[in-house]
Specification:
CBS-domain, two-stranded antiparallel ribbon, elongated, CBS domain
Length: 142
């Protein structure tokens, strides 16, 4: 299991949110891809931030209440997200997950986004390899 890397189980088919994207488009992307958040990148795929469902919910409520113009992703994103390299061991990342840690990590190689890894992908990788699962032993009567 220690040899299974983040790059082996990351998702690289979901397009990140581009800087300058209006919030309504961000919400569409999150809902269409069934994810709770996505990295925000520039034109060279450098990670600028991370936007979550919760960020969008809060911004939509505030915007609706104050009748302000539509925010863009930079108005609501978290600008210092935790990232992981593709060569990091999945088991090491799993051991670092905590209650207040992100559910999705941008995977960055050479300063550029190459994918995302979710808690669900980590859980699936652990389950598939049988990590932490032991075969029950039953007492036999002699």
């Amino acid at each position: 299991m220690r040899s299974l890397k983040v790059g082996d189980v990351m998702w690289n088919h979901i397009e990140p949110v581009r800087s300058g994207t209006p919030l309504t488009k961000v919400v569409e992307v999150l809902l269409r891809n069934h994810v709770t958040g996505l990295p925000v990148v520039d034109d060279k795929r450098h990670v600028l931030g991370f936007v979550s469902e919760q960020d969008c919910i809060h911004a939509m409520l505030v915007t609706s209440y104050h009748h302000e113009g539509e925010p863009v992703v930079e108005d609501v994103m978290f600008s210092d997200p935790l990232t992981v390299p593709p060569e990091m061991a999945v088991v090491d990342l799993a051991q670092n997950l905590g209650r207040n840690k992100p559910k999705i990590y941008p995977v960055v190689d050479g300063g550029r986004l190459v994918g995302i890894i979710t808690r669900a992908a980590i859980l699936a990788a652990l389950a598939k390899t049988g990590y932490g699962v032991s075969v029950p032993r039953f007492a036999t009567e002699d």
